[in-house]
Design goal:
There is one protein chain. Helices cover 34% and strands 22% of the residues. By secondary structure, the chain is an alpha/beta fold. It has 2 domains: 212 residues, 3-Layer(aba) Sandwich (D-Maltodextrin-Binding Protein, domain 2); 88 residues, Periplasmic binding protein-like II (D-Maltodextrin-Binding Protein, domain 2, 3-Layer(aba) Sandwich), CATH 3.40.190.10. The strands form 3 sheets. Strands 2-1-3-10-4 form a 5-stranded mixed sheet, sandwiched between helices. Strands 7-6-8-5-9 form a 5-stranded mixed sheet, sandwiched between helices. A 3-stranded antiparallel sheet has the order 11-12-13. Strand 11 and strand 12 form a beta hairpin. Helix 8 packs parallel to helix 9.
Amino acid sequence: MRIRLGTRGSELARVQSRWVAERLLDAARGAGEPLEVEEVILRTRGDADQLSPLHQHTTPGIFTRELERALLAGEIDLAVHSLKDLPTSTPAGLRIAAIPRREEPWDAWISAKHPDLIDLPRGATVATGSLRRRAQILHEHPHLRVEGIRGNIETRIASAEQRGDAGLVLAAAGLRRTGRTDRIRGTFSVSEMTPAPGQGALALEIREGETVLDGMLRRIEDPGSRAEITAERTFLATLEGGCHLPIGALARATPRALTLVGMIATVDGERLVRMGTEGAIDAPEALGESLAGSVLRAGGAEILEEIAAHGTPRADTGDRPESGEPR
């Protein structure tokens, strides 16, 4: 069997797609089945535009729509997405067939001189393109300045250093996957910096009705990761949010239970609601919906109204949500 695996062309995307291909080939060898995986590189709108802040793109899925178009057109058989990029609604005719074992979901602090955010002097600049990270940084450290940044991992690190920023925040998963663990000065706890829903996870998307391929992908599905992601994305969908908004969620699975922490904040970080809950491992949707309701009642609804009324920062504020960020 031959699988055409669609991926973006960035270093991280290709590392992730090769990891998936290796898992599939291992599973096929274990089953004594012949398998060939062909990588098909596609350029997305988000890859083409490396300057505009992500929140200025009104169409969701700027890193995933081209792969989904190619899937529906029959140009590829399998799309590998960073789950954090994937909108909560799946196009008709497609399905997420598998979520493999999740990588570390935490956000990481990168700095040559400063061990932690708490060590930074007043007015020091922290680089991140994510509104979610910006809001949480300013909520805990309002004396700091947050500047936007775009590009691949190495470009962002180099840009922050050239600008003289005190440090930057990226997802630990992408740094680990690309062999840059030496860059990680430390990671943030869920109460310091709640990750984005789906951070560190991959989504393997196929066309409906592809039963043979679906069966192969089930071999590399991780049930715990699936439960975590389902709870997080249900929380996000219930709040009707996306990567444009300062929303975070992280679920952690044990054999019998699922814990979930969810967060929403104003863009300036002045108001933030973060809550947690626990439920059954086999009911992740109910857990996500329940926590979203609690967050909305605790002030999240007012935060959403405020964001809707005032919008998100303009490009000239320096607060630029990143795209294709390290996973």
